[in-house]
Every structure is written in C-alpha cells, then in structure tokens.
Amino acid sequence: MFLGNLQFHQVKEFLGYELNEEDKKVWNKYHNDKANLDGMNSCFHVFLFPTCIVVKGNDANIAIKKIFTPDKIVEPKGEFRVYVLKA
Question: What is the reported pTM?
Fold first, then answer.
C-alpha cells in the first residue's frame, strides 16, 4: 500500500534535498497529483509511505535524475526508491 502525495515544498523535509527554482519548473511540468499517473504520458508521483517515486515515461525519468543529484542533499533522510513503470 502506498500513501501520500509529496509536494515540492515538502521535498527538503521528507527527502532532504534542497531544490532550486529550475527544479521547481521541472517538478511542475512532470509531477502528477494522481497516484495512478493517469492523464499524463510522462510524469511522476512521490509517495510519503513508503517514501518512493513512481515514474512513467522516459522524459520524466530523465527529469527526476536531473533533479535529485547528490550535490543537492543537505539533510540526509535515508534512502528512497524510484520505480519506473514499463510502457
């Protein structure tokens, strides 16, 4: 069971990453509030419990890798998983 819908302003608190304004633009482009990822061809959803990112589509997959880079970790919160859905 997956619960939650992490929003951009919660990333530092729950994931420990300090994201910038460019990251926010990318987040807004690909983030899907719907847990089942309906309505978008390439998108992601961040669950709080368990902490993980589910990604659909290659563009969103690339975007996630550009957002969450080691240099942006300011407060380690432990690991989280990224699940990429197959088309």
Answer: 0.92
